């Protein structure tokens, strides 16, 4: 029994490392993009570095989730680690921005397998009475890795070399690979089913077109240009084709039947809204601190630590409370705190003290943290072992879609507001500020060295404009926060079911009898 518990510990450690490296990659690269572009060039193509990863990751989530239900979790989790590490090594060797984008796409395919399958294996190997606590820990790893990304990326860029933001994945990924490869053994029989290739093709195509239209619209091309309208039209047509294909497929990648369950449908929608708010805070609070208050990239990343700690605590608390009360009751409190934290952040000004900002972030992080554990459990509630992979991957896919689309939309709002404020501050000029300083040079205020060279009068106007644009964007972020609360009300009264007292719940459910080692 002691040996079995040790093996379970290794399995869980491997899963958490897999989640960590996949989740942190969403934010760590963003911090280093300025340095990467300065060395590799390709300023006009740098958006592909982010979008290539996100597109392949999002498209791969439901596909790998379904395949893991059909053929087993272990082989696809290992495949995901291998592809992620291969992409990481290649990214570190890139010599131009196009190469880096291609290698990031490979990395994204691996990331699309790691996240959902890790949470599914957790439900397969952990007894019911321990799922709440473990889901809280796993959710905390996800939240902490996403928030620590900017800090770690800034430190690596400032003190080592940008290529190590990719190489750092190697030791962590290899340890995760070793633990899963040698300590996790599935005994669940998987029925061979037909692969929904048409569903996969139309889903990937729709996601690719949507992501590129959002990434390029308003920057590379005008929103009403032929290129952007064509991409949006193609996304709509392919998504409609996907829905049609899924209705007729024998084994669809995303089953409509799952959405007939109110708890699953509501949890997935809530995850989308939470994802939009979470990624916006993680990306723009450091920019506020660096651009408004001044400081290095490392210091601006460090400011997220209070939000990280509060979200980690809330995630574990949510896992504990899920056995005491319904998922809906927990998420109602979470959503109300989420709304409060979002509103508080929208009241920031250049004069806001650092301790008050810290309190606001603690409130926001605490509200968001519950979603990391509770929504994961709620989305898989009631599904048997052969369906959990699809349920978990669909949830992860929709949350990532919310993060990506939300960040893009709120980024557009912030950019437009900043441009408007700067034009107003500098007398309505569209070409630049006094002294020949272009609005495009606003990034100089993010650098401690270049910031000192900006005249105080001009710097003051830039600071006011940037502060106003970010807080206005936070105010708009109340929309998904309120919508999340509305969706929470439809969750129902389900809660984490524990085995009866005296029962030995070694096996999570019928049909799933995992073994942790050899025979």
How would you describe this protein?
- This protein folds into two domains: 2-196 and 250-488, Growth Hormone, Chain: A (Up-down Bundle), CATH 1.20.1250.20; 197-249.
- Mean pLDDT is 78; it is low at 429-441 and 503-519.
- It is mainly alpha-helical and 519 residues long.
- It is globular, with a radius of gyration of 23 Å.
- The chain contains 19 helices and no strands.
Beta content: under 5%
Query: How far is the first residue's CA from the last residue's CA?
Result: 13 Å
**Structural class of the secondary elements?**
mainly alpha
Compute the CA-based radius of gyration.
Answer: 23 Å
Biggest sheet statistics:
none
How much helix is in the residues?
over 70%
* CATH topology term of the largest domain: Growth Hormone, Chain: A
How many individual domains?
Answer: 2
* SS elements, strand count: 0
Q: How would you describe this structure in keywords?
A:
single chain; 519 residues; mainly alpha; Growth Hormone, Chain: A; 2 domains; 74% helix; globular; disordered C terminus
Topology:
Layout: H1 2-40, H2 47-71, H3 73-92, H4 97-125, H5 128-159, H6 164-167, H7 169-183, H8 197-216, H9 226-248, H10 256-259, H11 262-293, H12 297-302, H13 305-321, H14 327-345, H15 354-380, H16 388-425, H17 448-451, H18 456-476, H19 478-488
Helix pairs in contact: 1-4, 1-5, 1-7, 2-3, 2-4, 2-8, 2-16, 3-4, 3-7, 4-16, 5-13, 5-15, 8-9, 11-15, 11-16, 11-18, 11-19, 13-15, 14-15, 14-19, 16-18
